[in-house]
Amino acid sequence: MNPKNIFNEPLHIINIGLEGFAQDLHAAGIDVIQLDWRPPIGGNTRLAALLANLDDEN
Amino acid sequence: MIVKTDIMPSFYQDSVILMRIAGQIRQRPGVQEAALFMGTPSNQELLRQIGLATAEGTKASANDLIITIAADTEADAEKAVVAAKELLKARRQAMDESHEYRPRTLDSAIRSMPNANLVSISVPGAYAKFEAMKALRRDLHVFLFSDNVPIEEEIELKQEAVKRGLFCMGPDQGTAYINGVGLGFANVVHRGRIGCVSASGTGLQAVAARVSMLGEGVSHGIGVGGRDLSQQVGGIMTGFAFKALAEDAATEAIILVSKPICIAVKSKIEEIIRNIKKPVIICCIGTSDFNIDGAISVRTLDEAADAAVAVLKGQRWLPNYFSDHQIIKDKLDQIRDRDALAGSNILGLYTGGTLAYESHLLLESFLGTVGYNQAKIEDHLHLILDLGDDVYTVGRPHPMIDPQKRTGMILEMEKRKGVNILLLDLVLGKGSHENPAEPLAAAVREVHNRFRKNGRPFAVLASVIGTAMDPQDYNLQIKQLQEAEINIFPSNAEAARFAALLVKPELYDQFVGSDS
């Protein structure tokens, strides 16, 4: 059972949340991009949960 | 006392930065408390719990920033609000001026990073599933630091991950390593041949750091989240991680790290391990008697690292109470008022949850009942506290980031009758405080002076989780602790056993044995 495209390949990381984690990765020379994250749907967690379930597979 | 609230509409900032700024505001003259929170439902509840909920604050939405100050006078509160806003705006301006592109959605991030293979998520728990599921459905591995994720959501995420051949490392996972690169709170370690599957953040840090200091290295450390080995989750990610590491050419031995696991899951994990051809070291603190031919079952985190390194070197590994008996004898000779410490009580103040738990179990095995994370502290008990537990971090940063909670408790030690032995951990690495030894040493030095003045015996024992490659100069951290008369041990287990030895000197023969 090989996990997809991760072992022994360069890491390319999207960081959502605490900026410090992205800064540490960047300082270590890792390719990282920080998302300008805000709570979705104005912070309505119930709607966010519904949207998560509706989110179609790409 | 005046309580003043100001709202910054549609101004989002992450919790670590907000807590840091709140910490700066608290230092201002006349300020008694400062709370900076986004207006999410859980934060509104938190403000109620800490008595800082105001009519203005409750109107804020999840996208609005609430600044609430408790101060001696109206003027002090007003000045503190202005200062907080200035700090926030300066931060925002610095970010804008950096010209760094920050996409607003995961899909736009993927467009600018089409080769992305992992998403690290540390948003509030209520939104974690939303973001993590999106990432998994785009075939991206997930490191999920967020806590307060409902267990049903955890199961859904992990099922989706395994179906797609992806890792979902968390929720509530503090540390992971992929290709030797640390994620979250992580020590900088050598890349090497030892793979880890860990349901514990600090447990993984302790094992990875020791493996690295012993000259070996970590291939991958798959953090699975503290609940993965519970009956409900059933070890979904642990099983997947074991199979992945079993097939990984870079991994030659595998260590499992966790707190106790439930019996039903234990037999499932045993079955998986039985089919693995590589050496496996099992360190489930509090769960023993694994029945697997060829696997090594160990009691403590240091033993896990030592056994893995020995196996890879083709050496036989045998457990030991202390790695160097001569050093223990020398340390005993150096302890001030050693005889007077016999029969004392121990207070353990920990920043690492698994380290605290490990000490709790070890001390109970030698000394009988030991209190653990009890809200009401009884003077007559030995007591171990995990200060990273939710009980102690309400509205405050984790003690690995902010040492104030622990130093405050150390400075109050003299109030605890009979508690003369202090047991500590110090966790270095990315994410931790930039110089954690400094405030810890200052507090301990002060208590040494007070106890000495009163003719009261006092001993402080600690271990440092770290490597020479960590951002906080490892040797300087140890030097600062030693200068404050803190006895440093090579591992948490040895520090805990030494504490037991001070309380009960008759353990000497058992610990140091016939070569004494």
Describe the structure using short key phrases.
heterodimer; A: 58 residues; alpha+beta; two-stranded parallel sheet; 2 helices; B: 516 residues; alpha/beta; Rossmann fold; six-stranded parallel sheet; 20 helices; 19 strands
Number of discrete domains of chain A: 1
Shape of chain A: flat
Backbone structural class of chain B: alpha/beta
Give the DSSP E fraction of chain B (strand runs of 2 or more residues): 15-25%
Widest sheet: strand ordering of chain B: 15-16-14-17-18-19
Oligomer: heterodimer
Biggest sheet, spatial arrangement of strands of chain A: 1-2
Number of strands of chain A: 2
The span between the termini of chain A is 22 Å
List the helices and strands and how they pair.
The complex is a heterodimer of chains A (58) and B (516).
Chain A: E1 12-16, H1 19-27, E2 31-34, H2 45-54
Parallel strand pairs in A: 1-2
Chain B: E1 2-8, H1 15-26, E2 31-38, H2 41-49, H3 55-58, E3 65-71, H4 74-97, H5 106-112, E4 118-121, H6 125-137, E5 141-144, H7 151-164, E6 168-169, E7 175-178, E8 181-184, E9 191-198, H8 201-213, E10 218-223, H9 236-247, E11 253-258, H10 263-274, E12 280-284, E13 296-297, H11 301-312, H12 325-334, H13 338-341, E14 345-350, H14 353-367, E15 370-372, E16 382-386, H15 390-393, H16 404-411, E17 419-427, H17 437-453, E18 459-465, H18 474-483, E19 486-489, H19 492-503, H20 508-512
Parallel strand pairs in B: 4-5, 5-6, 9-10, 9-11, 11-12, 12-13, 14-16, 14-17, 15-16, 17-18, 18-19
Antiparallel strand pairs in B: 1-3, 2-3, 7-8
Helix pairs in contact in B: 1-4, 6-7, 8-11, 14-19, 16-17, 17-18
